[in-house]
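Researcher: I'd like a candidate sequence for this fold, 40 residues long. If you have to choose between options at a position, lean toward the conservative one.
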C-alpha cells in the first residue's frame, strides 16, 4: 500500500515528464510504483 498526497507534489513528479533537452522520459511516483508492482 502506497499512500500518496497528490497536492504535495507537482504533476510531473506524480505522473512523470518528458525532458525536451535530453529527449528522455523521467518517471514520476506513480510510474515507479507501477513498474515495481508489475515486475513482481
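Model: Candidate sequence:
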Amino acid at each position: 500500500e502506497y499512500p500518496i498526497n497528490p497536492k504535495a507534489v507537482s504533476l510531473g513528479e506524480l505522473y512523470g515528464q518528458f525532458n525536451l533537452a535530453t529527449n528522455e522520459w523521467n518517471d514520476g511516483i506513480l510510474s515507479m510504483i507501477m513498474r515495481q508492482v508489475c515486475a513482481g
